[in-house]
Design a protein that fits this description.
Length: about 290
């Protein structure tokens, strides 16, 4: 019985020894892409980032990222380069390789690397504004760049669109319509784009007059519109605002060089204005409320 116990002890010690002294392996995680809008939630490294060897482990992350003539290291890109699963200090433009070196308590070394990419969008500052006659169609578009293809498109409202899932659908609205595009890339990162389509009745001219004597801002507007009058005879002039059907919807007496008009009660759409001095129209044009 004594000999059997001795043999069992030797076998148990051998098993324990094989577990404690197996090869050290580092795991930096799989190559991955994150949405730049959620970079605060992103981290790298395996689960766990090291196995085998003899604990405790020491971690050292390194990287070299070049942008705009400057070189950034892992200490610029990661909050802490000495932890198993570091988080980022921010997102960056190009794919970057992060290298992980793991050292165990017996100075064994193991290495691994992971490629990280952030999906980010670039949207132009221009605005999509289209004017069509009633009954006509307009092709919607966007100026979104970036992201990781392939992409998915979802336009709303869908009722007046040829194909809401198309990148550039045709729209045939019966009245002013604000279209929104939800733009989704291959890893689920999203952004939005807006396009405004105005209906202009036949016979409405697109030319605006008033020259340097009349300025309007902002236009388009959310409903609060500022008019600046520089005509020497602007006192006691009249500003009239019409619907595109020609109905007078607001009339304001002008006695100051700057006039703020609240049009929020009129609703979204296109309106026309006439500026009248002594029964003569000296300025006219359009106001878009959206």
């Amino acid at each position: 019985m004594k000999y059997i116990y001795r043999i069992f002890t030797l076998i148990s010690a051998s098993v324990i020894s094989s577990v404690c002294y197996c090869q050290l392996v580092a795991d930096a995680g799989n190559d991955i892409a994150f949405c730049s809008s959620n970079w605060e939630e992103a981290s790298i490294g395996g689960n766990p980032s090291a196995i085998g060897g003899t604990e405790p482990y020491s971690y050292a992350w390194s990287a070299e990222y070049k942008y705009a003539g400057r070189t950034y290291t892992a200490s610029h890109l990661l909050v802490d380069t000495t932890v198993a699963n570091p988080v980022f200090t921010g997102y960056f433009q190009d794919s970057t390789v992060f290298h992980l070196a793991v050292t165990d308590s017996k100075d064994s070394l193991a290495f691994d690397s992971v490629t990280v990419r952030f999906s980010q969008y670039i949207i132009c500052l221009g605005e999509c504004r289209i004017e069509i006659s009633l009954g006509d169609s307009a092709q919607l578009g966007h100026c979104i760049g970036g992201g990781i293809p392939p992409f998915r498109y979802s336009w709303t409202p869908v009722e007046s669109l040829s194909n809401p899932s198309s990148e550039t659908p045709w729209a045939k609205p019966q009245s002013y319509t604000h279209y929104e595009l939800v733009y989704t890339d291959s890893i689920g990162c999203q952004t939005t784009f807006h396009c405004h389509v105005y209906i202009v009745p036949s016979g409405i001219q697109s030319d605006e007059s008033g020259g340097d004597h009349l300025q309007i801002y902002p236009n388009p507007s959310s409903g609060i519109v500022n008019f600046t009058f520089t005509h020497p005879q602007h006192d006691n002039s009249v500003l009239k605002i019409f619907s595109v059907e020609g109905k007078l919807v607001k009339e304001v007496l002008v006695n100051d060089p700057v006039l703020t008009v609240d049009l929020r009660d009129l609703g979204k759409g296109l309106y026309l204005y006439n500026w009248i001095i002594s029964d003569e129209t000296v300025g006219s044009g359009r106001i878009a409320i959206e």
